Amino acid sequence: MSEQEIRVPDLGGADEVEVIEILVSAGDSVAEEDPILTVETDKASVELPSPGAGKIVKIIVKVGDKIKEGDVVGTLSSDGAGSSDGASDGASNENSAPEPEPKAQSDDAPAKSDDSTGKPAPQKKSGGTRTEIVKVSGLDGFDDIPIIELNVSEGDDVDVESALVTVESDKATMEIPSPFAGKIGKILVKEGDKISEGDDLLEMIITDDGADDGDDADDSAPADSSDVGKKEPAEPEQPAAASDTKAKPKPKPADTGSVTYEAPAAGSKVHAGPAVRKLARELGADLARVKGSGPKGRIVKDDVHGYVKAQLQQAQQGAVVPGAGSSGIPGVKLPDFSQFGEVEREGMSRMMSVTALNMHRSWLNVPHVTQFEDADISDMEDFRKSLKPLGEKKGVKMTPLPFMLKACAAALAELPQFNVALDMDRKEVVHKKYIHIGIAVDTPHGLMVPVIRNVDQKGLWELAAESAELAQKARDKKLKPAEMQGACFTITSLGGIGGTAFTPIVNTPEVAILGVSKAAMKPVWDGQAFQPRLMLPLSLSYDHRAVNGADAARFTSALARLMGDIRTLLL
């Protein structure tokens, strides 16, 4: 048997990234380069690939963990025989463990199961399984509420309290937790179905030791875990009872008359599902400081919203205005918009919040100036359209972007003062001897900027294929961190949408960015008469500390010249 550690690969310079999704479970078979985890950097969500083909023995990280390059996140067995090795990590008297997931759970709490009762030992030796019907519980009196999300699939391994489905009532969105640890069998409901207390939800396949270990691992009080673990059929009712006893404190965080929020004891374990953790990340809430009101102290979405609201109230009463930066510029205090009409708040994703901070920092630190120019691309467009039959044979679509990339690369070589970075700490100008250009891509999850390297050394067809591939990877959230770093210059195009001009913000430490608007037919005087010409509006924003106005005018004029007669790109 051959096993290898799964380590975090090169993150493109990112120090620490957060695990936002685990895409595999112990026992899963994977091929080389199959995604194992999804992590979130300051710029994008990135999937970490498997270093080889085989079977996952174990994953040792969880959602919310911070990892860095070189960290071990799991173990991979090349021949799929990882379960026997996984058993050696648990109790020494446990010889049969066909499924790694229940084994990982028994590792978490061997002492509790031994101390609470001696009965589980014979069950572990039997190695049998049974099927339980998981019923809807913990709806706090709500009936006929719709399922808006299925959080598991058939065949998934789940722990006690893992979120099975998400439902939405008139007042809140709630997760229905699993009362057992085991493998999901048949799911009896689908998204959109309306369910009530006691309805059948799904079938779960449970090993004899799964329920005991799962409870012990998740309960914070040993006395409670022993009571619950002895009587498994009562499990579905337990979350409902816990929910009833803790339902009253829920409104406290949202009470407009109070700005205090009682945090849990330091060092206490955080119990929250993936959806709640995602919400906390988006709102910037520290789950370690949020008091849970769900079953067994589980944190639900209402708790996160209440915590954030309490923090905002404290900030307002303390005359601290969110958004005020260290620059000394006063922030903008928002009014209560609900007094004007109905409103809805949505948490910012980490990518959106980081992008906003970067744009704000660039705007404050860089003295922006924008130079405008119109480029006559009539001949370029005629030539581009003539390439369509050849492009169909090559399987590559020729867009205007490769021509812009070549023109910008030529202009950067002609005017190297645009291919620099300013080191203000050392009072130096960094001259770059390479030409890498970023292309802004509009995606459903935000603006992303993959980088095409060595543009000056590539032809039009190669640039067309590479730009299309990177744009698709951006939309599919498949970009690697290294594919979004190292740009000398950026092109952002709104031409497919509309507009005549705009002022893009420089992506510091770059010193310039080219904005492209929608091309339009305009009358152009040729010395004898007005001729209809296809004119492309260009907007060049630049850092006035590094570039003066005359050079900016030369740069846009060079772009107009190069795109006006593409034969000059060959010179």
What does the model show?
This protein has 571 residues and is of the alpha+beta class. It has four domains: 3-89, RNA polymerase II/Efflux pump adaptor protein, barrel-sandwich hybrid domain (OB fold (Dihydrolipoamide Acetyltransferase, E2P)), CATH 2.40.50.100; 119-246, OB fold (Dihydrolipoamide Acetyltransferase, E2P), CATH 2.40.50; 252-352, Irregular (Dihydrolipoamide Transferase), CATH 4.10.320.10; 366-570, 2-Layer Sandwich (Chloramphenicol Acetyltransferase), CATH 3.30.559. It contains 15 helices and 27 strands. The longest helix has 17 residues, at 301-317. The N and C termini lie far apart (60 Å). 37% of the residues are buried.
Give a short summary of the structure.
With 571 residues, the protein is of the alpha+beta class. The chain contains 15 helices and 27 strands. Helix 2 crosses helix 5 and helix 13 packs across helix 14.
Q: Give me the CATH fold name of the largest domain.
A: Chloramphenicol Acetyltransferase
Kindly provide the radius of gyration, computed on alpha-carbon positions and rounded to a whole number of angstroms.
29 Å
How is the biggest beta sheet arranged?
7 strands, mixed
- Poorly predicted segments: 80-126, 210-263, 318-326
CATH superfamily of the largest domain: Chloramphenicol acetyltransferase-like domain
